[in-house]
Known about the structure:
This protein is an alpha/beta fold. It contains twelve helices and eleven strands. The strands form four sheets. Strands 3-6-9-2-10 form a five-stranded parallel β-sheet. The chain has a two-stranded antiparallel ribbon with strand order 1-11.
Amino acid sequence: MTDTNTSRVEDASLEGTVEPLPIDAAGDVAADVVENVERVMVGQRATIEHVFGALLAGGHVLLEDVPGVGKTMLVRSLSRSVDCSFGRVQFTPDLLPSDVTGVSVYNQQTSEFEFQPGPVFANLVLGDEINRAPPKTQSALLEAMEEEQVTVDGETRSLPNPFTVVATQNAVEPNRTYELPMAELDRFMKKLSVGYPDAEQESEMIDRVLGTHPIDDLSPVTDVETLQRLSRTVAEATVREPVRSYATELARFTRENAELGVSPRGTVTLLQAAQARAVLDGREFVVPDDVKTEARPVLTHRLRTGVEGESPEDLLDRALQSVTPE
């Protein structure tokens, strides 16, 4: 059925390559993955859904928080739950770009150079403490995120499908880190914070991890092929004109009321995240509430208010209060 007031925000790389899952099956698979990760991550359902939604929408995530709140464990748990390949890059001041992308090594037996892939060649890549590495090394990962390919010694190699980077950075010791520029922050679909658990959640977490850690017993609940089909379902979720207009007006409000507002790429990214939110909720169409739910993690790191005392979160709150969906 054709709707002249309907649009989809689709990933062309998946077009025609895989069959989408029916919406009921897609919702069930998504729920299984989220619940499986919850076996390890106590009280973090919203964060889990945001990270998994970014994976389904082909986006990348920046997790910023203090050390020890479970950023790395969340990513490891997700990779085990979907039975996909996992790569980890521990960013340090002496890390080289080739440590991320890989390097060609001379094989004396064959008298040829052989490419040894770096950790970026995985479905789910954890870039741990990305802000501890110098900009040149950061850019090696960020370029892979943007292009979904890596060029080493003049040869370009495609990265796996799906491919999602979850980068972490600590919100402490700013004098020992390199701040990510706005152009690089814009490559992340979402910026999230895990946060501290409350007393009850922390007590339950301690009970789970003392002795055998729950991640050791975590089994996959789906596979990469199903994940690709689920991503196709997300890409085909319907985004009707009123919802598109709502996202556009939110972006326009930020541009008119901030030093740096949301770019058109940010608007598209917001709608892609909303598509994933709809599927997570068992719908094949996006509603304004999906846009509202995704607005804060998708948009705030793209804003610079230029107003003393007003944070990006404050500006976005004003936008959500001022702009009414049709």
